[in-house]
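Need a sequence for this fold. Nothing fancy.
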């Protein structure tokens, strides 16, 4: 039997639920902040932890030390913009100019932009990267560190050779969680022709804020 009062109270209950924020502001980052990620390089069949420790912060850059569990005692440098966008990768050593363009704040659901960067690899190879990016929405994302309400940011584009001939298609999806003040999960894929060449997954395992 249809009961109008049941529907009325159901609507009230739904209205009382807190709405997930549709905009995320740039997070505050401090020297001493650290996070550990569970890394899976599926295309290379490698699994390890990667710990990122913030070493310096200025008006433009965040510089961190990155240490992998499978390479004890060997530190790498990671450089991000204040918007947490990659300038230098701590895993590959590749640099992006002015930055990769995959993240920018404030992040608002529905935002779209074009990412463009010139890159140089550790071996000296050079590329020109372009992509279309979009903030698709807020999702609950389970990772080893817990479950987070996170904004899903997708970028799809091309890696075009400058020092070599050819191009590669790539896709990256990042989930940024305001509660953690960082990206909690990243999936990256690229293809050479129709062949999946690189496939990696990064998930937040633990996080520690400096006092």
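Here you go.
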């Amino acid at each position: 039997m249809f009961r109008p009062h049941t529907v009325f109270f159901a609507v009230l209950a739904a209205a009382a639920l807190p709405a997930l924020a549709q905009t995320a502001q740039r997070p505050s980052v401090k020297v001493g902040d650290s996070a550990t990620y569970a890394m899976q390089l599926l295309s290379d069949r490698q699994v390890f932890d990667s710990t990122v420790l913030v070493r310096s912060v200025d008006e433009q850059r965040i510089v961190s030390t990155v240490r992998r569990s499978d390479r004890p005692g060997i530190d790498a440098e990671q450089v991000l913009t204040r918007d947490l966008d990659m300038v230098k990768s701590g895993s590959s050593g590749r640099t992006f100019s002015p930055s990769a363009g995959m993240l920018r704040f404030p992040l608002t659901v529905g935002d779209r932009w074009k990412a463009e960067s010139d890159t140089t690899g550790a071996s000296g190879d050079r590329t020109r990267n372009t992509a279309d990016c979009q903030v698709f929405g807020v999702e609950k994302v389970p990772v080893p560190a817990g479950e987070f309400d996170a904004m899903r940011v997708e970028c799809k584009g091309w890696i075009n050779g400058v020092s070599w001939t050819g191009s590669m298609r790539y896709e990256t999806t990042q989930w940024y969680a305001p509660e953690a003040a960082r990206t909690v999960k990243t999936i990256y894929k690229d293809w050479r022709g129709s062949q999946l060449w690189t496939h990696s997954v990064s998930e937040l395992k633990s996080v520690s804020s400096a006092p």
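For context: The first helix runs from residue 4 to 16.
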